[in-house]
């Protein structure tokens, strides 16, 4: 037999016991040809285009899932940033577009649709501003729509006017979804250096440089990596890195074969494969557990940033060898609410917001799914965003913030979101004010590129 | 028509009639066995088959269901997966 029985059983073990999955198949659809000054016509164009392209997305991914016997958890759509598409509309409010996206997503049966977005790193157009102001209504009146705003890049610097505005928008979105623990904020990401082809929500959108229709795949396997690391006998950190590399190679190959097959069947371009260790609330499927497997008593203690740096780098190295289409976010995600190990670490007091911020300088994305007290001032939220944007800008990497100021909750409480979003213990923020700093607005200039030391 | 090849794995507690039951379903669906290996690993009956389908209108979902149903009756877990799942994952 050409394939060794042990290899076959290893693959089956990864799926059955270690939660290996294709986390998401995301169809990116360009809406650039949908523009119209009349928003009703625009909405009609958008609905028609999405439902035409994505009509067979769910059916096809289900068939490919059966063929290979690997579960595909989410089917999603990302679209051209709506601020670009709706720029020409003279209406002051774009939330009707979000409702159209929601309806289209519902009708083709996908889990989420991303792209209620704007790219404002250097400044805002009238359309960008209208879109941002529509976010609280858009996210509180729809179920499947996700929104992202890119407010900083390494080349443009940080748009502090937008950062300041987003503090208010995050607060208002939380208030408008207060009856569900502020869940609207779980669908809103603020980015630095946002990638154009990200398959992971809530930050997915179909970038301006992308073709008409692409299939991007997100693969995830923290459980597999965790189990591989734990099975090593008294390894050095070099051995651990080697083991993670080999494991992520295998996981990436899996995603590649599935992504290419889905794209072929749907006659779409195959875009990227993003291997990210994205945890789920399931026991063992945890990034924190991998860090603890390396020898830390509890995630968040001294050494955590170093362990995460090792993990993130090894994942990228394994992935880069396995596929020529590896996406920009590949590495480890460290959302709090979605990771049982992170939740435990917060509850036992070993993991603070400050440590999480430090960890984001070496991880895939950033401050993700973190609940803070509902009474946190908007300026403090803006300041947390600004810090995270600065880390991304200076280090030439993607960073993001997805914070939930949980309405009516305080430190010691817990917010429940259910499903993949999990539950989040409310974490304390620094009590001292950042208001004056944030109110200054303007732009933090881009860092100098020549003197990198 | 390019033939499709599948890896079929059968894992469970050993008993009389597992091979007979599973291969009967395969024959019903015109699924040919290219290679077969069977061993007892950690007290578990483990059978791995490389199977080939030449028919153009092969209904994979119906075959998977029939195999899985047969497995339930025999008290074993039966999986049918395209060979690329394993080939791509472990080989460059």
UniProtKB/TrEMBL annotation, chain A:
Highest taxon of the lineage: Archaea
Pfam families, A to Z: DUF711 (PF05167)
Transmembrane segments: none
InterPro entries, alphabetized: UPF0210
Signal peptide annotation: none
Entry's family note: Belongs to the UPF0210 family.
Protein name (database record): UPF0210 protein HWN40_10430
Taxonomic lineage from the root: Archaea, Methanobacteriati, Methanobacteriota, Stenosarchaea group, Methanomicrobia
TrEMBL record, chain B:
Family annotation (InterPro entries): ACT-like_dom_sf (IPR045865), ACT_dom (IPR002912), UPF0237/GcvR_regulator (IPR050990), UPF0237_ACT (IPR022986)
Coiled coil: none
SUPFAM superfamilies documented for this protein: ACT-like
Record-linked PROSITE patterns: ACT
Residues annotated as domain ACT: 7-81
Family that this chain belongs to: Belongs to the UPF0237 family.
Protein name (Swiss-Prot/TrEMBL): UPF0237 protein HWN40_10435
Species this chain originates from: Methanolobus zinderi
């Amino acid at each position: 037999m050409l394939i060794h029985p042990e290899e076959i059983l290893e693959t089956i073990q990864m799926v059955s016991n270690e939660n290996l999955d294709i986390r998401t198949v995301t169809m990116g659809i360009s809406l650039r040809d949908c523009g119209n000054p009349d928003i009703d016509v625009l909405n009609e164009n958008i609905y028609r285009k999405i439902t035409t392209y994505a009509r067979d997305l769910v059916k096809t991914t289900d068939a490919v899932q059966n063929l290979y016997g690997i579960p595909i958890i989410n089917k999603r759509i990302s679209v051209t940033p709506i601020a670009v598409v709706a720029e020409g509309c003279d209406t002051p409010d774009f939330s009707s577009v979000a409702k159209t996206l929601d309806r289209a997503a519902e009708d083709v049966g996908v889990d989420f649709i991303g792209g209620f977005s704007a790219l404002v790193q250097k400044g805002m157009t009238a359309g960008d501003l209208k879109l941002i102001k529509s976010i609280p209504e858009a996210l509180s009146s729809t179920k499947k729509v996700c929104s992202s705003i890119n407010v900083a890049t390494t080349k443009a610097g940080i748009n502090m006017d937008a950062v300041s505005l987003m503090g208010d928008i995050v607060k208002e979105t939380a208030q408008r979804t207060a009856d569900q623990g502020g869940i609207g904020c779980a669908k809103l990401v603020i980015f630095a250096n946002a990638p154009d082809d990200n398959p992971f929500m809530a930050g997915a959108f179909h970038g301006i440089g992308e073709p008409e229709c692409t299939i991007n795949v997100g693969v995830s396997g923290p459980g597999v990596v965790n189990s591989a690391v734990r099975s090593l006998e008294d390894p050095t950190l070099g051995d651990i890195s080697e083991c993670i590399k080999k494991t992520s190679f295998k996981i990436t190959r899996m995603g590649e074969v599935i992504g290419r097959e889905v794209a072929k069947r749907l006659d779409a371009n195959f875009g990227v494969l993003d291997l990210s260790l994205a945890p789920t609330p399931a026991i063992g499927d945890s990034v924190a557990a991998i860090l603890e497997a390396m020898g830390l008593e509890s995630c968040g203690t001294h050494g955590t940033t170093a362990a995460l740096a090792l993990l993130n780098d090894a994942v990228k190295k394994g992935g880069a060898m396995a596929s020529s289409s590896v996406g920009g976010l590949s590495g480890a995600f460290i959302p709090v609410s979605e990771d049982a190990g992170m939740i435990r670490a917060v509850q036992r007091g070993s993991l603070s917001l400050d440590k999480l911020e430090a960890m984001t300088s070496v991880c895939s994305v950033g401050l993700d799914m973190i609940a803070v007290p509902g009474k946190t001032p908007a300026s403090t939220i803006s300041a947390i965003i600004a810090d995270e944007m600065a880390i991304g800008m200076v280090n030439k990497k993607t960073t993001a913030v997805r914070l939930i100021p949980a309405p009516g909750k305080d430190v010691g409480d817990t917010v429940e979101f259910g499903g993949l979003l999990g539950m989040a213990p409310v974490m304390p923020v620094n009590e001292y004010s950042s208001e004056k700093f944030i109110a200054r607005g303007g732009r933090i200039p881009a860092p100098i590129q020549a003197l990198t030391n | 028509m390019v033939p499709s090849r599948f890896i079929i794995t059968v894992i469970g507690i050993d008993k009389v009639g597992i091979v007979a039951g599973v291969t009967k379903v395969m024959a019903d669906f015109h699924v040919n066995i290219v290679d077969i290996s069977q061993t007892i690993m950690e007290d578990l009956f483990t059978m791995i088959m490389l199977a080939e389908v030449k028919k153009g209108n092969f209904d994979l979902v119906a075959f998977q269901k029939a195999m899985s149903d047969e497995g339930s009756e025999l008290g074993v877990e039966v999986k049918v997966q395209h060979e690329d799942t394993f080939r791509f994952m472990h080989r460059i």
